[in-house]
Amino acid sequence: MLRRVVRQSKFRHVFGQAVRNDQSYDDIRVSRVTWDSSFCAVNPKFVAIIIEASGGGAFLVLPLQKTGRIDKVYPTVCGHTGPVLDIDWCPHNDHVIASGSEDCTVMVWQIPENGLETPLSEPVVMLEGHSKRVGIVSWHPTARNVLLSAGCDNQIIVWNVGTGQAMINLEDMHPDVIFSVSWSRNGNLLCTACKDKKVRVIDPRKQKIVAEKDKAHEGARPMRAIFLADGNIFTTGFSRMSERQLALWKSDNMDEPICVQEMDTSNGVLLPFYDPDTNVVYLCGKGDSSIRYFEITDEAPFVHYLSTFSTKEPQRGMGYMPKRGLDVNKCEIARFYKLHERKCEPIIMTVPRKSDLFQDDLYPDTAGPDPALEADEWFAGKNGGPILISLKDGYVSAKNRDLKVVKTNTLETKAATKAENTPTVQKHVTPKPSVKMEDKLEEVLREFKSLRDRVILQDRRIARLEEQVAKVAM
């Protein structure tokens, strides 16, 4: 009889753990809007949560350390006149967030360094171009100030946030509601899932469909599609018998899937979260009480089930922390912010390791906050992969650039009233002495960290030696 060999993987024993109650964010009225969005967005400084608001749309922005009960009068971002449907933090500036709403607008906000002290109702930029509600907003992964929005008018608009202009309008490609939009790793292609059951790969600058697959999942319920680091596409959806499915496709030839797996018969839409550094996909179902995770490899069956993290409470939404916000000293490979009816609960995914040293295999260089391109370069046809940073010493962020608004000269344009409000993003030039001070501070922090690590190791060594002495004495 052949003995079954268990597949080797460093992520086989990943375990999830919810934080203590006092480290959650309590007493939050999470939005009840019936839209399949994650309702939560996270970065290394803030967690943003879409909430119930009377007379318009609002979302909370909390500094990560502000845990515990959140006061009912805590200031919100409240400029929309309709419910907010989606929010997304800018990957190149931890103080800038975009929001899409039922009021057909997209707004870009600048959050103060220490969070909100008063309600924020004036966006830095308001982007108007959709005729129906805006359900998806997504920043370009490598080009500064490029933002995508998709609305229920079945069109996708790519904006230059620096000038407030709609640069690309993809309006004849989707005959029905767009369920999801995902940028490729370097942002040269888009992948969309639509209510017409088609998954499309689109070149936004050439405004053409590169590849498409009809009935990627045959069920009528919403699909999701995301790009993987190697250019393949991962989709979640439903079979004809309403079973939840996941599938893997080659983006250049979508005739047949690389693999299809059926999961269960639950009716919650699966939201995929992907880590391009480790090739692990986490699936969180709306209304589920579990997070399943899978590793994607080149060997059959290609999508390998790892494990499931389960709790008693169902999730209404989920936020996913970028890699540079994780604690590398605890071998943390993912952190989720799970939305309940009245609270947000962080969940930490950890790989158990005995060593206290930095784990290179768990933390390859990851995408940093510096953009590879400016908006004008990308719109002109240039591509650039993400600029990678090492997490060896823990990520220390440099000072963020502010979004500075400069009114244009009304004499230079005919549309005077429009032009006066056109904001442009200027690069904040940091004076040279402060750059030197920052470098010196980083150097001191690095030295402090290495000394602290050395002291911890010596403490442990002393404890071990004391134990040995005690045994010998006995």
Describe this structure in words.
The chain has helices at 375-379, 416-420, 432-473; strands at residues 15-18, 25-26, 40-42, 46-51, 57-63, 68-69, 77-80, 84-89, 96-101, 105-110, 125-128, 134-139, 146-151, 156-160, 165-170, 178-183, 190-194, 198-203, 208-214, 224-227, 233-238, 244-249, 259-262, 270-275, 280-285, 290-296, 303-310, 317-320, 332-339, 343-350, 366-367, 388-389. It has 474 residues and is mainly β. The chain has one domain (15-389): YVTN repeat-like/Quinoprotein amine dehydrogenase (Methylamine Dehydrogenase, Chain H). The strands form 8 sheets. Strands 1, 2, 6, 28, 29 and 30 form a 6-stranded mixed β-sheet that branches. Strands 3-4-5-7 form a 4-stranded antiparallel β-sheet, with no helix packed on it. Strands 8-9-10-11 form a 4-stranded antiparallel β-sheet, with no helix packed on it. A hairpin with a 4-residue loop joins strand 25 (280-285) and strand 26. It is globular, with a radius of gyration of 23 Å. It starts with 14 loop residues before the first strand and ends with a helix. It is found in: Cytoplasm, Cytoskeleton, Stress fiber. Belongs to the WD repeat coronin family.
Describe this protein with a few key phrases.
single chain, 474 residues, mainly beta, Methylamine Dehydrogenase, Chain H, six-stranded mixed beta sheet, 3 helices, globular, disordered N terminus, WD40_rpt, cytoskeleton, Coronin, WD40_repeat_CS
CATH architecture, please?
Answer: 7 Propeller
Provide mean pLDDT, rounded: 87
Write down the Rg: 23 Å
CATH class reads Mainly Beta
- N-C termini distance: 51 Å
What is the total tally of β strands?
32
CATH topology, by name, is: Methylamine Dehydrogenase, Chain H
Main location: cytoplasm
InterPro entries: Coronin, DUF1899, WD40/YVTN_repeat-like_dom_sf, WD40_repeat_CS, WD40_repeat_dom_sf, WD40_rpt
Subcellular location: Cytoplasm, Cytoskeleton, Stress fiber
GO cellular component, one term: stress fiber
